[in-house]
Amino acid sequence: MSFFKNLFGKEEPSTTGTPVNFQEPGRSAQELTEQYAAWGLDKQHNLSEVIGDNSWNIDLDKGELSFGDNLSFPVQVLGTFSHSSETWLWAWANTGSNIPPQLLEQALQLKKHGEQYDIPMFKNQTFDATVNDLHLIGMIASGIFNSSAYYAADYGQGILLVTLRSEIIDKADRSDAARITTVFPQIISFFEMNHLNAFKNYVERRGYTVSTRDNQVTAVKDGTTITATFDEVGRLTNLKA
């Protein structure tokens, strides 16, 4: 998954305090992917522009993730991925790491949602996983909680997954057509989803007015029009701005 490696300088594929924007998320992993994956990947481009090639360091006592000497962001800890066993472990189940309770709020919210709607990915404390699963969890979490981005911090034996929040990252955001027509083909190549549903969710979250006619979706914002065409089962066949 060279794209993830290029974007984060890592192997392929927080808010502190009360989480925000936990409003009517999907009731299945498929719905959550269609709601948040593209938007989550979009945010990672903002993060990449801000942190550049700086190496990371985390201070769990402070609840901060830093890059170089001048960038430091508050985080929420979601969990860890083990390279050797290829398993995911939720932070709320990682009792041996003594993660401060205030950094587990988002992970526990996701656990509660998983239990309510029987979503194994969120309710099971550990499961066999791939690096792509880790990135999907990060994208969904950053969307649900309106975080600025997520970060996959590779520490050699595994990867620590956190969400973070920063006005600096938010200010790097842009919703122009070039970004959207780049991000959307990327996300549908990484994860299975209904392309039509995912596209509508994505452009609506980016502030576009959306109209649908037959299998064509038109998104309009500030004089810019993006048109996406889909086949009879909702797969993207054409995307242009």
Description:
The structure is a single chain. With 241 residues, the chain is an alpha+beta fold. The chain folds into two domains: 170 residues, no CATH class; 64 residues, no CATH class. The strands form two sheets. Strands 1, 2, 3, 4, 5, 6 and 7 form a seven-stranded antiparallel β-sheet that branches. Strands 8-9-10-11 form a four-stranded antiparallel β-sheet, with helices on one face. Strand 9 and strand 10 form a beta hairpin. Helix 2 packs across helix 7. The protein is globular. The N terminus is likely disordered.
Please tally the β strands and state the result: 11
Beta-strand percent range: 25-35%
Please mark out the parts with pLDDT under 50 across 5 or more consecutive residues, or reply none: 1-23
Mean pLDDT: 90
Q: Ends: how far apart?
A: 27 Å
What does the largest sheet look like?
7 strands, antiparallel
Shape summary? globular
Give me the number of helical elements. Answer: 8
Topology pattern, helix = H, strand = E: HHEEEEHHEHEEHHHEEEE
Q: Write down the domain tally.
A: 2
> Helix coverage percent of residues?
25-40%
Q: For the CA atoms, what is the radius of gyration?
A: 18 Å
User: Helices and strands: which structural class?
Assistant: alpha+beta
